[in-house]
Amino acid sequence: MLELLRSRVGSPISYTSIAGDAGISPNTVKKYIRIFESLYIVFRTAPYSKNIARSIVKEPKIYFFDTGMVEGDAGIKFENLVAVSLLKHVYGLNDYLGKPCTLHYLRTKDKAEVDFCIAGSRGPELMIEVKLSDSSPARSLVNFNKRYHTPGIQLVKNLKQEQKAGQIEIRNGLKYLTSLML
Q1: Which stretch of DSSP H or E encloses residue 89?
Q2: Which letter does DSSP use for residue 65 in this model?
Q3: What are phi and psi of 51, to 5 degrees?
């Protein structure tokens, strides 16, 4: 199970698909993931939805607390690093500032997606897209920005110059992550 999860970081997880690959039931997959979560090996991000029951049913994404566990290219490993940093930031906002917020991702029915969304009690507050070296704003980030009127940041690991276009900022990923409250 753990080996299967290592190669599926950053993608919506289908319990049925993993169950088929591992030769176990979907309920057993869910139990293993809960065990991995309780041991702080992995954590889940659910898709944002105003309807909480609906977001629980949709496929979560799995990330590792230890980026060294991730199998994949530099882009997937950077996305995992961003996920861990944002999760710690959200915990800090909750614990230190008493600001209730959660970490999600955004996805439409036609599979347009933004990697992360920090949501407060009134809905999405910040959208974050992660790229290894693409400095032009992702189409999905622009579309979600228009839909939710929520600021967006595209974090780019290999970025020469930061820029801002309206409510969307293109930021150096590592520099931004070091500025977060952890």
Answers
A1: helix 74-95
A2: S
A3: -90, 105
Asked if residues 12 and 69 have their Cβ atoms less than 8 Å apart, the reply is: no
Token pair for residue 171?
A: 């930021």
Give residue 38's identity as a one-letter amino acid code. Answer: S
Q: What distance lies between CA 34 and its chain's CA centroid?
A: 18
- Would residue 13 count as lying in a domain? no
- Go through the chain and tell me how many residues it has: 182
**Domain coverage including residue 128:** 74-179
Let me know if residue 59 belongs to a domain. no
Domain count, the chain: 1
Tokens representing 128 are 């974050």
CATH number at residue 148: 3.40.1350.10
pTM for the structure as a whole:
0.91
98-129 pLDDT tens trace: 899 999 999 988 888 999 999 998 889 999 99
Rounded Cα distance between 143 and 179, Å, is 27
